[in-house]
Design a protein that fits this description.
By secondary structure, the protein is mainly β. 8% of the residues lie in helices and 44% in strands. The strands form four sheets. Strands 1-2-3-4-5-8-9-11 form an eight-stranded antiparallel β-barrel. Strands 14, 15, 16, 18, 19 and 20 form a six-stranded antiparallel β-sheet that branches. Strands 22-21-23-24 form a four-stranded antiparallel β-sheet, with no helix packed on it. Strand 14 and strand 15 form a beta hairpin. The longest helix is centred in the N-terminal third of the chain and has 16 residues. The protein is elongated. The two termini are 34 Å apart. The relative contact order is 0.12.
């Protein structure tokens, strides 16, 4: 999201929320909780180091929007202790901790951590919950659900919650697509489409999917690093971005809109993206998609030798590999024998 637009939207939401018109937007909830912008203190829950994080499917009814929702959460069971990550849509990395006894998992009210939204910091509390646990802990249910809040202002509010253990299989993710790369006064604005399917069109779990940005400088390729110097709302440098991650400023969920910073962008031949799908925790296995290259500097591209082409691949604008005889506007990727990548748009 463009930063100047972000600031304007924040102000607009504030005015509309105060007027009581924006009742169906969760941003209004945060505006109501404005007094709760604090430097939070408290212990943040984390599971024991090395504990296996198991993927569960979440299903529940959001009483605020009156809609059913489905997403993924992670569960850790350590003897009588149970931990769940992802119950809040506002703090997807936040954990809650409970105890299991006689088929019941009890989670007391607890501090979950802080999150940034439109430049403001909020301290999020989990308001407690009770889940029924089946014999093998593969299904957890909470008919009464749970809420999270900021200084008493309710944010997440779910009932009829069911968590079902997933059994994901390793798969090769479909190739993502860069649809646009434009410049504004802050940097360069990257737009991407990252499929949540494998190469055969089967659905895969977004929670296990991530992506990586790559740079080609006339045949020299490197991984783009999201640094805390350039990305002020990151807490650590990142080279792999989870599909579900957002800093609510420069990086959108699913890579839909991402700011790219660089002093030498005019020297970049192409910018690329690949998806990474990782299954398992202790014995992790990852598979990567093919890299989708988006041409940038046509002068630099033309300067690359076209001799000794080892492989040529064509993609449509959705990132799907197509036959060499395909027609229309295509992305042509040529890999030379020395490893150099040449990318260009062709119309046939």
């Amino acid at each position: 999201m463009k930063k100047i637009t972000l600031i304007l939207i924040a102000g607009l939401v504030a005015m509309i929320a105060q007027a009581g018109v924006f009742n169906n937007d969760k941003a209004a909830k945060l505006q109501n909780a404005k007094s709760a912008i604090v430097k939070a203190e408290g212990d943040i829950v984390t599971p024991p180091a090395g504990a296996e994080q198991m993927l569960y499917n979440f299903q529940g009814h959001d009483t605020y929007t009156n809609k059913d929702k489905a997403f993924e959460v992670f569960v850790v069971i350590d003897n009588a202790d149970i931990y769940i990550k992802g119950l809040s849509e506002y703090l997807t990395e936040g954990w809650v901790k409970g105890t299991i006894a006689e088929g019941t998992a009890t989670f007391p009210a607890a501090y979950m951590g802080t999150f940034e939204f439109w430049g403001d910091e909020y301290a999020l509390d989990f308001d407690g919950a009770t889940f029924t646990v089946n014999d093998d802990a593969s299904v957890l249910t909470a008919a009464e659900g749970y809420t999270t809040s900021v200084e008493g202002e309710i944010l997440d509010e779910f009932i009829n919650v069911t968590l079902t253990k997933a059994l994901p299989e390793i798969a090769t993710p479909a190739t993502p697509t860069i649809t646009n790369f434009t410049e504004d006064s802050y940097g360069h604005y990257l737009e991407m489409t990252i499929p949540t399917t494998d190469v055969d069109g089967n659905d895969i779990y977004p929670a296990l999917l991530s992506y990586q940005i790559l740079i080609d400088r006339g045949g020299e390729q490197s991984v783009y690093e999201f640094t805390t110097d350039a990305y002020e709302f990151l807490t650590e440098n990142m080279t792999v971005i989870p599909y579900t991650f957002s800093d609510y400023y420069d990086i959108d969920v699913a890579g839909k809109q991402v700011y790219i910073y660089g002093d030498d962008i005019d020297q970049w031949t192409a910018i690329g993206v690949k998806s990474i799908y990782t299954v398992g925790d202790k014995s992790r296995e990852s598979r990567e998609s093919e890299i989708f290259w988006y041409p940038l500097n046509t002068t630099a591209i033309d300067a690359i030798s076209t001799s000794n082409v080892a492989e040529t691949t064509y993609y449509d604008l959705q990132g799907r590999k197509v036959d060499a005889n395909a027609t229309g506007l295509l992305i042509k990727q040529s890999r030379l024998s020395d490893g150099t990548i040449k990318v260009e748009k062709v119309m046939r």
